[in-house]
Write a structure and sequence with these properties.
Length: about 280
């Protein structure tokens, strides 16, 4: 996975996933892969990428977009996809105000590397005059890259099944936690599919005498003396007595957290910040 701003002749931080692909195009050329698989890292799902690559090869595609179906209100946060009967993508609308379909791009892409680099360079050349001198103007995949590839007529869909959630927003991040309180969703606890993560090492969670834990997930190092129901406790949390921790997920400031402030989500699915 390339670091932001690394590779190529351009310096600075990337301003979108198409932008960062342009910045590492020399690395792509040097590696000379048969296909290039590009993924976003803030999604929860289980997928055998070989299946998407097989679809890509079958269609001799320039790009294959892994898709899924979501509710209309969620589709407004993503690029919506329309296809013909052969599965070729005929229209892509990035974050539409009023989605006409719930089929969206999951930000999992299989590219023909040579086509990708060629199109990125063409677009960058066209956009240079309009872009900030320190930027390529390419932005995210839905701004220019995917629409141009769709125009070329060789972009196909691979429809995935099962659970998928974009956890890049606070509301969806906590919605995914609530979902996991109900079941493993076909994502966790699957034999042969270990979860590899940066969770810090710690002793096993300890539930003391008299404590109650129901429908909850406990991270390493947790110590529970009180009552915890429908909650998720992060690493090294200490839940003492004196009241219930009910239907909440808390993320605290710390070296292993992505948010700078705590967030609490209650059973009415409202989200509020705790400083």
């Amino acid at each position: 996975m390339p670091q932001e701003g690394a590779g190529g002749d351009e310096d600075g931080l990337a301003s979108g996933n198409a932008d960062v692909l342009f910045r590492v195009r020399d690395q792509i050329r040097a590696a000379d892969p048969e296909v290039l698989l590009v993924l976003s890292s803030d999604h929860v799902y289980r997928l055998d990428y070989d299946e998407a690559i097989a679809r890509h090869d079958e269609k001799n595609a320039e790009c294959t977009v892994v898709t899924t179906v979501v509710a209309p209100e969620e589709a407004a946060h993503h690029a919506t996809i329309e296809t013909n009967r052969l599965g070729r993508i005929t229209d892509l609308t990035d974050k539409p105000g009023k989605p006409t379909t719930g089929v969206i791009a999951t930000e999992i892409f299989v590219y023909d590397p040579s086509v990708l680099v060629t199109v990125l360079e063409e677009l960058q050349s066209e956009l240079t005059a309009r872009a900030d001198p320190d930027e390529t103007g390419l932005g995210d995949f839905g701004n220019h890259l995917l629409p141009r590839l769709v125009e070329r007529g060789s972009v196909y869909e691979y429809r995935m099944s099962g659970y998928w959630k974009d956890v890049g927003r606070p509301d969806t991040y906590f919605a995914a936690h609530r979902d996991l309180l109900e079941s493993d969703l076909g994502v966790l606890g699957v034999p042969g599919w270990p979860i590899l993560t940066r969770t810090p090492q710690g002793p096993p969670a300890r539930v003391h005498a008299g404590a109650v834990v129901e429908d909850s997930l406990l991270s390493p190092g947790c110590r529970v003396h009180g009552v915890v129901r429908r909650s998720i406790l992060g690493p090294q949390r200490d839940r003492g007595g004196g009241g219930d921790r009910d239907r909440r997920c808390r993320v605290r400031r710390g070296p292993h957290r992505g948010w700078s402030a705590s967030l609490l989500v209650d059973h009415r699915h409202r989200c509020r910040r705790r400083r």
